[in-house]
Amino acid sequence: MALFEIKNLSFAYPTGKGRNVLENIDLQIEQGQYITICGKSGSGKTTLLRHLKSVLTPHGNRTGVIYFHGQPLEDISLREQSSRIGYVMQNPDSQIVTDKVWHELAFGLESLGENQKTIRTRVAEMASYFGIQGWFHKNVAELSGGQKQLLNLASIMAMQPDTLILDEPTSQLDPIAAADFLNTVRKINLELGTTILITEHRLEDIFHASDRVVVMEQGRIVADDTPKATGAFLKEAGSEMFAAMPSPMQIFYGVNEEKVIPEDCPLTVREGRNWLSKSFPDGKPVKSRLEEDTDLAEIAKPALLMKEVWFRYEKDAPDVLKGVTFAAAEGELSAIVGGNGTGKSTALKTICNICRPYRGRVYLHGKRVDQYKRGELFKHNLVMLPQDPQSLFVKKTVREELEEMVSAKASSDDNASPIDEIVDLCEIRPLLDSHPYDLSGGEQQRTALAKVLLTDPKVLLLDEPTKGLDNFFKLKLAKILRALKERGVTIIMVSHDVEFCARYADRVSMFFDGGIITTNTPRRFFSQNSFYTTAANRMSRHVFDNAITNEDVIELCLENENHEQ
Amino acid sequence: MRRDSFSEYHPGITFTFFIAAIVFGMCFIHPAFWISSVVLSTAYVVSIRGRRAAKILLILLILFLAVSLLNPMFTADGEHVLFLLPWGRPYTMEALCYGLAAGGMFVTVLLWFAAYNEVMSSDKFLFLFGRLMPSLSLVLTMILRLVPSFQRKMAQIVGARKCIGMVGDVDRKSRINAGMAVTAALTSWALEGGIITADSMQSRGFGVGKRSAFAVYRLENRDVILLGVMILLILVVLLCAFHGGMKTAYIPKIELAGTDVPYMITGMIAYVLFMAIPTALNIVETVRWHYLKSKI
């Protein structure tokens, strides 16, 4: 008997004007499977997942039945559902209820009224399994985002569910914490046999582990098959979703446009390497290099210059910035990459003069930032998009958000409002009357970007702009950034997203231990690294010298093929 | 905070100790009692806060001097006049002694509270009283978590707005507007977070039945022994107080229970032993570790 059986489920929100968010969904989920559900945002993934637990099911017009172990889900008591069906949501912070780690672990069991002894054993067991003994007595506020999400997972696993539903659990985490979290989910699936249903935009980390991949489009299931077969299907259908597939798969189909043999398709970097090795059996290919970039010129008049900047938060605290020297060229996109907690965001704050360095200087267009008059710095000069776009939202609609910025400038300008232009640039016209909190992550990001752009900055600082974005939104963001560059805006971006930096940045700097270690063009930068680099580079570095993006690898493969013929 | 072995005992023990110490500290103005109380509370605060105690001790010393030296300016009663104030009021020894006692009382109570704050964390308090009302204690726990998270979020919003030039420090009107905007943002964020928290609670079975309350504390043998000792000492102190061992009057004439009153001596010994418990435990622990190490 199937664990879940969804039969002909359709659903519409009461405010949705009769438009179905889910349309005739039929899905069977077997015990112990690992199922990935993917689709563009707004395709109904979350709505579908929420239907699998009665307390979370949204109100609206619904037809169809969901069976859990052969019984209609509504007939199963909430008590049984809460312990047997675990649900992890996106936001690590808001899901936590109590103030102590140990209390959070016990919360679900307390709700079920378990006795001390049972709770003690289960909590101890989960703390050991998830490796959280070290912070068992801590306040939850002291935890990092990754630890918080792991705690959410552990406190659900303490109730011993046989199904685990995860709705974009890693969208707020950095790549390393995210990979860690997804590995734990995989471990739960393998070692405990817990059924996993997961939606993710970081597909490369879970695609190969999935038994099945379900693709949703506008409330319908368009594909439901093994990862390889789903990939082949998406390629053939020319679906936009193909852009979200893992790099090895995209490269494979990029090279083999015609002859599609889904079984040969690599899913991981390891399989990708093997596949490339097989393509070039006699070692090195004829052409193994792409044309080098020209050397980085000395920046004569940097738009922004940091000179040996030292900073710490308190007198006795350790230094966060240890002599950062950094220059950004006018009209370029400079990316700063590096691990968590190395001080990248603090560096941006010193540029904004919110954190004042105790040694060293920051110059904007040749003038020290602390010598700009009050308010002048952020008027037509410099602006920063914070990591969490929500912290910029203060109004009820997107339109009001934007108007706030214009009226603040004393509306001395002529009436041809700058809003119109920015709205078109950021493609948010359809969203103008929505509440900012109702938008998806990518839409919020663009709204916040539009808001900061209304100050008409010459230098734009971005703190992790691709966090939580799926690949379509990343493409849109890249397009906006390119348009800004053409207008002469200097962009400095702090990011974990090596794929994005490799593709779109003009120069990349590595931040480590409170300083900039090295700066280079993306091609040189990433082809010299062996670990901190793109999937395409890791997969191809044994045959090609400097291919860093999927397109690079595809281009080199195709050229070599032509040589052979 | 340094490692404090007293705080590793059961929260019930800790709580009983502080209640007794604070109540006794407020009642006993016999010089032998208040002086020993000040000394021992200081010793404990130093043993848990280490160097960080210096600041609070300095402030309390100033407070102590102010209370005791100023008292005679307000009460002129007393037999022994030390000198006359410029405006002709007598400054008496009795009033000064009373001031010293009041100041000592004040300081000792504050010191015990300082130690209480370090030792009795909110979850210990909730553990003691939460089981009477699990739902109320859950609400308290959630509030304890929300307040700091509001502060953090507010700092984040203000910081984000600074970086887009929306500071509003030009005039009062723009400052008010900026404040309103931050409040509005904070409210939306809190409501949004509240919905998720509610979902998360419900999805983990909140409201399906009667809640139980889990606690990480267990009553061990050493807890029972220490509790027995503490109760015994408290009873002895109370008994002695009842029999006039702490008899004290400062004004108009100083009259004290002297060392010739057996209840005074017994009460004093019991009181000192009682207040020395936490400090002694810390010292014993340190000595024991040195001893164990030296045997290796």
Describe the structure.
The complex is a heterodimer of chains A (565) and B (296). Chain A is of the alpha/beta class. In chain A, 34% of the residues lie in helices and 20% in strands. Chain A has a six-stranded mixed beta sheet with strand order 6-7-8-3-9-10. In chain A, strands 16-17-18-13-19-20 form a six-stranded mixed beta sheet, sandwiched between helices. In chain A, helix 3 packs parallel to helix 5 and helix 5 (145-157) runs parallel beside helix 6. The longest helix of chain A is centred in the N-terminal third of the chain and has 18 residues, at 175-192. The radius of gyration of chain A is 25 Å and the shape is globular. Chain B is mainly alpha-helical. Chain B folds into two domains: 6-121 and 220-294, no CATH class; 131-203, no CATH class. The interface between A and B is large, with 68 and 54 residues.
